[in-house]
Hints:
Distance between the termini: 56 Å
Order of helices and strands: HEEHHEEHEEEEEHHEEEHEEEEEEEEE
Low-confidence stretches: 1-17, 309-317, 359-368
Amino acid sequence: xxxxxxxxxxxxxxxxxxxxxxxLYNFTPLPQSLLTNPGADVKYKWFxxxxxxxxxxxxxxxKGINAYDLxxxxxxxxxxxxxxxxxxxxxxxxxxxxxxxxLFSAGFRIGEPEDRSYVSFGMYQxxxxxIYIPTDIAILSVYGNKDYVGKSFNLGDLSVKAELxxxxxxxxxxxxxxxxxxxxRGKIYSSIFNATSTHNSGYFHTVQGKNLIYDQSIRSNLxxxxxxxxxxxxxxxxxxxxxxxxxxxxQKALLGGNLGLGFDVxxxxxxxxxxxxxxxxxxxxxxxxxxxxxxxxxxxxxxxxGVITDFNSNGSINSxxxxxxxxxxxxxxxxxxxxxxxxxxxxxxxxxxxxxxQTECNCDTDEDSWYRxxxxxxxxxxxxxxxxxxxxxxxxxRRFFNGLQMKATYTLDSYSYKNIGLGLYTKIxxxxxxxxxxxxxxxxxxxxxxxxxxxxxxxxxxxxxxx
Length: 467
């Protein structure tokens, strides 16, 4: 139990507040849009992110439940709330969280104006967690098996992954011709803490035999892999948990953790001057966990007979528990393992209108014309341990004047059918500030929200992006 509590603490400690960044994607005035599409059509000469302030984002989502279901002060007993939540969820419901902090970032244009390319680089810290609601295990824990004779409880419902890591990256963006821009971004991952338990299987099954005797079977194939937290999981650990963890984060964030490699790829294509098509794949990569690895397994088979209140034919609970531990032992392994990063796919179609002509050469943008407004649609998909997570977004972009732009979105996803978001970009001189917020209608009652996300940041930008 102590180990489980520590693992949960490791997960929650670094969650400061769905990974779909539908407002940021293709909002090209922001340099951070290059992190969602390295082939974005950017126009500024160079940018410098304000360290620790250029990109701060958090995203949390829950499918099937929300905080109000469990913590509402409505006089309903908490155990009753637990049972109501179990009754309305299934094994495909989940809770997910993502947090990012940009440590530093910069980018600059290279080459001649007619053959310009763009280089960008930086480093960010990220926390990911994804937990499927283990419905069958919850039913068994709360109700037991007495009223579920004949049902097979699926132990494979247990599926959870959480990771704190840093990412060092460098990207290259180049127009192939007047209609297409292509980009790629290389990444080095440094995992600070990881906990993964996703490929589980097994069942617990009870059937009634003769003379009120019940045949019960357990088939277990459960594994929990962890890295970076071995000393905290040691029963003899007596250090300062808080200070030790902070020191670990500092050391491992600068490529001192478990390392991995990955890349992003993306493009922007203009079949016509006012029609734009984009696509990108983000986080094609993996991490090899070799340092401070500690894995726990519960593997084996156990069959026993008895009346429903006893665990074996002898009626001895203590001996039955020992039989269970012998048949399905809790083993500890120290074997390296690999994890894949959640692969994300973005694409968009945009139609621009309200064209305006420049009366003078604008060397900041290197364009002869621009469009004041645009409408479009975006598709998002992310890999999960089971089915992909999907989202569809419609949006409207508007440039009010050179220093102020807006993007409004409406998103359909597994969390909500009324997700309205808004992003604002402002630029005064070379100073840029932006704020993006999602699911705005939920802010009237945050406890009932199934998803919330925001992102803010400050950049120094030379030139502009008006397309």
